[in-house]
Amino acid sequence: MILPIVGYGHPVLRKVGENITEEHPDLKETITNMYETMYNAYGVGLAAPQVGKALRLFVIDTTPFSDDEDLEASKQQELKGFKRTFINAKMLKEEGEEWCFNEGCLSIPDVREDVYRNPKITIEYCEEDFVMKTEVFEGLIARVIQHEYDHIEGILFTDKISSLKKRLIQKKLKNITEGKTFQDYRMRFIAKKGR
Which DSSP category does 135 fall into? Predict the structure, then answer.
């Protein structure tokens, strides 16, 4: 089932997600719905807070990035089919010289900004089988994970831009908060007003 994506300004986007147990009700259904919602919105990642749930859960599928012709064939192959569910993730290490990439977010439609992130991460998490694993990721995969991980920590990519850039996008953010935005996917806003 396609869920509405929560828009900028909703308090759930600022909550730190709670850990999940194997007995969490409807977990498999929630994960399935999150993938369906992400694909419907043409996203590469989606975190539980974005569908109104303050949980330590996010899903990723970087396949759309594999179409980038500017990437080396090996990088395209790495991104193609990288699909992963992250439960109770904990960032252990972020390292390397920060690099810039233009990011967007399904909860903040029509806003894209350059964000600096570390190129290499070490993260501990469970997949749906609840077996804990620790893995190292680099490049675009690491970036997508960092973006979604921020969501379960109550952080948005707009928190990582300069105060000047924040002032420049203030009107857009206010419009999103009020539901004065148009996108091709279902959204839920904190203060929907007439357009």
Answer: E
